[in-house]
Design brief:
This is MmyB-like transcription regulator ligand binding domain-containing protein. InterPro entries: Lambda_DNA-bd_dom_sf (IPR010982), MLTR_LBD (IPR041413). This protein is mainly α and about 140 residues long. It is about 35% helix and about 5% strand. It folds into two domains: about 5-45, no CATH class; about 65-130, no CATH class. It contains six helices and three strands. Strands 1-2-3 form a three-stranded antiparallel sheet, covered by helices on one side. A hairpin with a 5-residue loop joins strand 1 and strand 2 (about 85-90). Helix 2 (about 25-35) runs antiparallel to helix 3. The two termini are about 40 Å apart.
Length: about 140
């Protein structure tokens, strides 16, 4: 339950009957078991996966998540990385927080903008449409 994975799926994995677990599933199990770094790395290797390297934060936004953002038409939603980088947002979020496309991608950090705004940058004004930092629009 702590890993957010069904008991049936975990039992199938333990018995070797389930599909090859994804990196996210293995990471969730390791967090739920509160494994130390060496133990976590061993579990990843046993699952046939490369252990996560220290200091790296995944900035990839899956298409399914972007579709979900599109559906939240009346709910301001933004997706942040573990360090607060704004990775994706919807139109309602732009209306509330301002248009993130006016900032350079390296400046799109929620905490940075709250505490260290750059006065030389244009003010962010509301704009429409879902956005993500890697898109041509933003």
């Amino acid at each position: 339950m702590l890993a957010g994975i069904s008991v049936d799926y975990v039992v199938r994995l333990e018995q070797g009957r389930g599909p090859h677990p994804s990196e996210q599933v293995v990471a969730s199990l390791c967090r739920a078991l509160r494994l130390e770094t060496e133990e976590r790395d061993l579990v990843f290797r046993l699952a046939g996966l490369e252990p996560p390297r220290a200091g790296l934060i995944d900035l990839h936004v899956r298409p399914g998540v972007l579709r979900l953002l599109d559906r939240f038409t009346d709910l301001p939603t933004m997706l942040l990385s573990a360090k607060g980088d704004v990775l994706a947002w919807n139109a309602a979020s732009c209306a509330l927080h301002g248009d993130w496309t006016t900032l350079a991608p390296e400046r799109r950090n929620h905490a940075r903008q709250a505490f260290l705004p750059d006065p030389s940058e244009p003010a962010r004004t509301p704009a429409g449409g879902p956005r993500r930092s890697g898109s041509p629009r933003g």
